[in-house]
Amino acid sequence: xxxxxxxxxxxxxxxxxxxxxxxxxxxxxxxxxxxxxxxxxxxxxxxxxxxxxxxxxxxxxxxxxxxxxxxxxxxxxxxxxxxxxxxxxxxxxxxxxxxxxxxxxxxxxxxxxxxxxxxxxxxxxxxxxxxxxxxxxxxxxxxxxxxxxxxxxxxxxxxxxxxxxxxxxxxxxxxxxxxxxxxxxxxxxxxxxxxxxxxxxxxxxxxxxxxxxxxxxxxxxxxxxxxxxxxxxxxxxxxxxxxxxxxxxxxxxxxxxxxxxxxxxxxxxxxxxxxxxxxxxxxxxxxxxxxxxxxxxxxxxxxxx
Length: 305
Description:
By secondary structure, the protein is of the alpha/beta class. 33% of the residues lie in helices and 17% in strands. It has one domain (7-292): Metal-dependent hydrolases (TIM Barrel, Alpha-Beta Barrel). The strands form three sheets. It has a seven-stranded parallel beta sheet, with helices on one face. Strands 8-9 form a two-stranded antiparallel ribbon. A two-stranded antiparallel sheet has the order 10-11. 46% of the residues are buried. Mean pLDDT is 91; it is low at 274-296 and 299-305.
């Protein structure tokens, strides 16, 4: 049996108020699925009540550190449990994030633009959905340019806010400009398998955007965004095949906030009872699954700006 190589790089705890299971429960699933470890990345506390219903409170931060330390001790020698954090990004939050990241030794810090958050929508959904989408990709680029984050999480999340207004050729120029800027920073981006559970059921990002990321040399970290233990490493084999189909040879992960690359072939072989992926890569078309050998490039047929 190959040695475990991969981590669950995006997972939560009950402190965020919308996840279940203790870190030990997630570690047990990671062990069963052949992972080397887990990096706990719960939602950061933010002063002033920003999206307070979906994150730990400021006074719970030490409790968070204790939860992760307890699981690390319980699984020592079996599953490598590490401390991470998922931090919301919007212009003006930078100083709070910077201060929080100095309070502990994190291994992986995700930067997320959560377009579904009511406080984000109140400020930025002031015109059309297309304008909101443009703002989202501008904020993705800005988040990478802060230098605060290792990985930009679920980087086309906005498409699920108003699926009927998601027209890839129209928004493509804005995506590509954002990716150009992100590539300049060296920050990684996430392939988030929980997108298969969302309104547009495909991983975040979709295959066309993923190919554009590969063309720019942007590293990719796989994460399941697990909010319950059974989703640890969910659809990782599909995600790895999707990476390979778009031209990637490695997946990446962070320890000590330093990037480590793992060959895709070795990553697949290391997993316990990998999913059957067939001869192609699984994609989704509305609510229907199908196979095709590789996605088409992301190209603009619109002059919208």
